[in-house]
Amino acid sequence: MEKLMIKGGRPLYGHVPISGAKNSALALIPATILAESVTVIENLPGIRDVQVFEEILRRLGAEVIRDGDTLRIDGRQLRNLPMDDSSVKKLRASYYLMGAMLGRFGEAVVGMPGGCNLGPRPIDQHIKGFEALGAQVVYKDGSIHLTASHLKGARIYLDVISVGATINIMLAASRAEGVTVIENAAKEPEIIDVATLLSSMGARIKGAGTDVIRIRGKRSLQGCRHSIIPDRIEAGTYMIAAAATVGDVTVENVIPLHLEPLSAKLREMGITVKESDESLRVIGKENYQAVDIKTLPYPGFPTDLQQPFTSLLIQAEGTSLVTDNIYVSRFKHVDELYRMGADIRVEGRTARIRGGSSLHGATVRATDLRGGAALVVAGLAATGVTEIIGVDHIDRGYENLEKKLCSLGAEIWRV
Ligand code: EPU
Predict the structure, then answer these.
(1) Are residues 132 and 187 in the same domain?
(2) How far is CA 180 from CA 126, 135, 175, 199, 315, in A?
């Protein structure tokens, strides 16, 4: 079992390049199934979830060639196989196989998706969308069975704003006859990224990034070349770590607008954030002010940064409230932070953080991806040595974490 060891208390200094967005990559790879020719995806992050998805496509019969951060996918020989094994069930984003295979083959059998345990994560809005497009959906033996003799565009109102449902419906609708309108759609940058790929393949998509998306499907789609947007959550994690260690770090190759909800909160705490065209510089200082955050769909504060941000708030003067409006149970990192000396109480969806405690190293367990990132931030800021177990969760979403942090002056190693 691998562990991450961190000798904390060293300010981070320097520049760090940000990889391609995990949550775009995990939608773009299955989206390539919709094309009848070769698609090349650039700026792919080297993370475990992406490797798992590459393997899934190979098992479906696609030729998948990885060259550095570029992936060439030839799906011409793709077969319609049931995808219900353990690797599919491990991955949250495997639900995109439903929309992609439904669009390509008119049918699909996909195991119920896994991913981080953040409380109930239903997929009823995905199913509502597929049914509106004309699919029959049956749940049997732990898998979803979808069939559609003919996919036809429809008007779909999402009862819950969902990134996954918005993208999944876009995937299936890209090969449906006529126009699909998604109302109350999610507006995350990753949705625009997927819409860009689907448009390059031949679908006509308008309104991605707003809450009404129109998709005019096409009977057949062609491969294309696409470069993934930067990972705003990876960038945000390094920005938070810079502030938590009272360092001075520039995250490079980012779209600053995507990080505005975080930059605004860092500034509210008294931290300097300087913006350039493609980079953001965070300069920490002693004595931060406590702030409250409420996670919301984009452009609100992202739930995926809530956990690392909690580790920063421990160092603020006063009491901060962190409310997660997206997931009911995204506070499993709190018990671990408690072992490191934090004073946090969780009531329902809200964590109350009494700032000003000094963190000390301890043995802690990552139980989910961003909770793991929160422990890394805490370990970097703490005195003494922190030992993090459950590293496989962190490897799902952060490329070269130790290498990037070491280049900023951190003492972090894997045993
Ligand atoms: N929801 C429903 N019904 C649905 C779909 C969602 O009730 O059919 C609820 C969820 O339970 C949740 C809320 O709606 O309370 C939002 O869920 P959403 O569908 O937007 O989440 P997701 O698509 O499953 C993606 C990211 C998550 C990120 C969320 C929110 C991927 C693979 N995952 O999940 O990323 O937290 O959007 O931004 O894109 C992470 O990277 O650590 C991560 C968990």
Answers:
(1) yes
(2) 14, 14, 10, 14, 48
Residue 9 Cα to ligand 1 midpoint, Å, equals 34
Of 327, 330, 322, which is closest to residue 367 (Cα–Cα)?
Answer: 330
Answer for the pair 153, 177: CB distance below 8 angstroms, yes or no.
yes
Catalytic positions are: 116
The per-residue pLDDT for range 162-180, each reduced to its tens digit, is 999 999 999 999 999 999 9
Centre of ligand 1 from the C-alpha of residue 118, in Å: 10
Last residue of a domain, one of 174, 193, 227: 227
Establish whether residue 237 lines the binding site of ligand 1, counting it when its CB lies within 6 angstroms of any ligand atom. no
Does any ligand 1 atom lie closer than 6 A to the CB of residue 328? no
What residues make up the domain containing 140?
Answer: 22-227
Do residues 135 and 152 touch, judged by C-beta distance below 8 A?
A: no
Question: Do 347 and 276 reside in the same domain of the chain?
Answer: yes
- Closest atom of ligand 1 to 233 CA is 41
191 and 280 housed in the same domain: no
* Residue 201, token pair as written in the block: 């393949």
Stated as kind and residue range, the H or E segment containing 393 is helix 391-395
User: Which pLDDT does position 1 carry in this prediction?
Assistant: 83
User: In angstroms, what is the span from residue 370 Cα to ligand 1's centroid?
Assistant: 13
Q: 57 CB contacts (<8 Å, ≥6 apart)?
A: 29, 30, 32, 33, 64, 73, 75
The string of pLDDT tens digits covering residues 381-399 is 999 999 999 999 999 999 9
Select from 195, 192, 188 the least CA-distant residue to 261: 188
Q: Is 92 in the pocket of ligand 1 (CB under 6 A)?
A: yes
